[in-house]
Amino acid sequence: MYESDGSIMVYWHALDIQDSSPCQHLRCAPPAGLSSGMVLVFDIPQKGTNITVSEVLKEHRDAITDIAAELGQAPVRAFNFLCVWDSLEQLIVTGALVPSWTCSSVRLWNGIVAAGYGNGQIRLYEAATGSLRAEVGAHARWIYALDLAPATGKLLSGAEDSFVHVWKLSRNPDTDDVEIEHCHAECVTDTQICGARFCDPEGNSFAVTGYDLSEIFCYSQV
Amino acid sequence: MAVIALSPTERRSAQHNAHLTRRRILIGRAAAAKTAPSDWLSRCLGDGGWRLATGAMSARTLPLLFLNLGGEMLYILDQRLRAQSIPGEKARKDEWTDVDRKRVMNDIITTMFNKKFMEELFKPQELYSKKALRTVYDRLAHASIMRLNQASMDKLYDLMTMAFKYQVLLCPRPKDILLVTFNHLDAIKDFICDAPGILNQVDETFRQLIEMYGCLSAGEFQLIRQTLLIFFQDMHIRVSIFLKDKVQNSNGRFVLPISGPVPWGTEVPGVIRMFNCNGDEVKRTEFTTGGNYVTPQREGSFELYGDRVLKLGTNMYSVSRPAETHTSGSSKTLASSAKVNAFLILSLVKLMTLAARCVSKVCRWSHMAEGFPLGSFTTPIRLYTLFPPSLNSWVTGSSIH
C-alpha cells in the first residue's frame, strides 16, 4: 500500500505460501482481493501507518476480479459470483450471476451495483437485496472497464468491441425503480479498450486506453 | 515518465452527438521503452488494464501457443512447397517434388506431435520466453530434409506470429481460441490423412485438448487469451497478405471490425430492460450503438469432429479458403490472388550435390532441449531460400512500435 501520491510505501502484507497466486486486485482503501478467492480486509487508521489485517473473508471459490466500496458496503465479484458485504463484516446477499459468463468489473453507487460482463452486458442490482433491476445489451464483446462519476451517477463502460459508452443512472423518486439511459457512444477505432476512467467526479471528461496502445486518449465535453 | 500533451487538439467525432474533443497524451519515454509501454498506461486506467499488464498469467497457455503457431508454420510451408512442385518423373535430382513435400510435412508433423513432447507441453507451466520459443520452431522447421536460411526462417516466424496474433485478437469469445486451435488441427489431419500412425498421435492430442480445456470457464479462457496477448504485445510487423486484404493497417495494427455476428452468447447491443423490485419488466428502451451487428447463426463444435463455424485458424494461404474479413461485408477469395500474389517464392539453391552426398549417409539432428526425437536421413538435404530479398518482400519493413 502506498501514499495516495505514490511516493512512499506505507505497508506490505506477506501472503502465505499456500496463496500461490498473486494479489489480483487492490484499491486505495481495503479490502484486497486475491486470485485464490479470499478477500483481505485491512484496518487503516486515519493517521499513521499502523495497518493490520482485520479479517479474511472466504466466500468466493474463484479469483476476485473487482472490488468496489462505498460507505458501509462493498460488492465483490469473482468469476461468476457476486457478493455484497455490509461494512465488510456481514454478507448481505450472494448471487450466482449469468452462469456462463464472467463478471469482469463492478461499481457501487447510491445503493446500486453496476456489473459489467464478459458477454457485453451491464446489469444493475439493488445492493441491499441483490435483485436485478436492469439489464443492458451494452457491448458486443467483453467489457473490460466500468467507472462511475459519483457526483452525477454517470456510468462509463469500455469493452473489446472498440466502444466506450456513457450512461446515466438514476432512481425514480416515486417508484424507487432504478433507471439507466444511454448518453453517448464513442468508437476508438481498431482498439480493444482495456481501461477507462472518468477524469472528474461529474463525469464531464474521461480517459481510455487499449491493448497495444502507447497512448491515453482523453475525451471531454465541450 | 514524462507526459506530453500534443497540440493541436484532435477532434474525433462520435457516432452521434459530436461534442467531444479528444486529446492524445503521448507518454514520451514510454513510447521508446522496450517493455510494452501500454502496460504502464493500461495500469493507470483501470482494472482491466492492470490485469493485462501484470496480473495472473494462465499456466495453461503453452499448448495452445505451440499448436497454433505450429499450424500456421505448416500452412506456409505447404503452400510454398506446392508452389514449386515439379511432377516426379520430370524432376531433376535437386528439384522439389510432391513426394518430397509430403515427406517434409509428415516429418515435421510427426516431430510436433511426439508423445513425450506433448506430455511435457501439457503440464501446467509458464510460457517459454520468445527466444526459447523461436528456437523450438527453428528446430521443428529443420526436422526433415529441408533447410532454411536465416532470413527465410526469420520471415517465416514473423508471418506465423502475426497470423496467430491476429486470430487471438479477433476471437469473438475467449473460448473460441479453442475453435481456432481445432481448425489448425483439422487442417493438420488433412495434411497427413494417408499416414494413420501420425493421425493417431494428432487425435490423441485432440483428446488431451478437449480434456484440459473442455470445462474451463469464460473467465479462465479470457485469462489464457490475455496471456497470449501479452506475449504478442507491441508486435506490429506488416504482412502483405494482411495489408492486401485490409485486415491490417499500414501502421501495422489490425483492423477490428464493428459489424458482423456477435459472439455466441452475446446479444446484439441496443436494448435496455428495467425491472421493478418484484422482478417484472417495467420498461424497455433502445439506443443506437454505432456498430452494425447481427445474431450469429450457430455455435462451432468442440467435439473431435465437427463444423467449427469460425474461420479464424483455417488456412488463409490455400486457394479454396477465403480470408476472414468482416469489414468489407463480403468475403474475398484468394483463388486468383494466391498465385498472382506470389508473396513467397521458393527458390531452390542447388546446394551442391557434393555437400549433400557428404552428409547424406547419416544425418543426425541434435535433440531439442524439450525432447524432440533424433532422426536419421539418407536422402540429400536441400537448402531453401523461402523469401529471396530480390522480390517484393511479403513482410515489409521493420516492426513499428
Through-space gap between termini of chain B: 17 Å
**What is the residue-averaged pLDDT of chain B?**
73
Percent of residues of chain A in beta strands?
Answer: over 45%
| SS strand fraction of chain B | 5-15%
pLDDT < 50 stretches of chain B: 1-19, 26-54, 321-380, 388-401
Which pair has the most extensive contact? Answer: A-B, 79 and 76 residues
Quaternary status of these chains?
heterodimer
What is the overall number of helices of chain A? 0
- Helical content of chain B stands at 40-55%
Structural class, from secondary structure content of chain B?
A: alpha+beta
In spatial order, strands of the major sheet of chain A run 1-2-3-4
Biggest sheet features of chain A: 4 strands, antiparallel
Structural class of chain A: mainly beta
Organism (chain B): Meleagris gallopavo (Wild turkey)
Protein name (chain B): Organic solute carrier partner 1
Pfam family, one (chain B): Oscp1
GO cellular component, one term (chain B): cytoplasm
Overview of the structural elements:
The complex is a heterodimer of chains A (about 220) and B (about 400). Chain A has about 220 residues and is mostly beta strands. Chain A has a domain at about 95-220: Methylamine Dehydrogenase, Chain H. Helices cover about 0% and strands about 55% of the residues of chain A. Chain A is built from no helices and 19 strands. The radius of gyration of chain A is 17 Å and the shape is globular. Chain B has one domain (about 55-255, about 305-370, about 380-395). Chain B has 14 helices and 14 strands. Chain B has helices at about 30, 35-45, 45-55, 60-85, 100-110, 115-120, 130-140, 150-170, 175-190, 195-215, 220-230, 240-245, 335-340, 355-360, and strands at about 5, 10, 20-25, 145-150, 240, 260, 270-275, 280-285, 290-295, 345-350, 365, 375, 380-385, 395. A three-stranded antiparallel sheet of chain B has the order 1-3-2. Chain B has a three-stranded mixed sheet with strand order 4-13-10. In chain B, a hairpin with a 5-residue loop joins strand 7 and strand 8. In chain B, helix 2 (about 35-45) runs antiparallel to helix 3, helix 4 (about 60-85) crosses helix 8 (about 150-170) and helix 9 (about 175-190) runs antiparallel to helix 10 (about 195-215). The radius of gyration of chain B is 24 Å and the shape is globular.
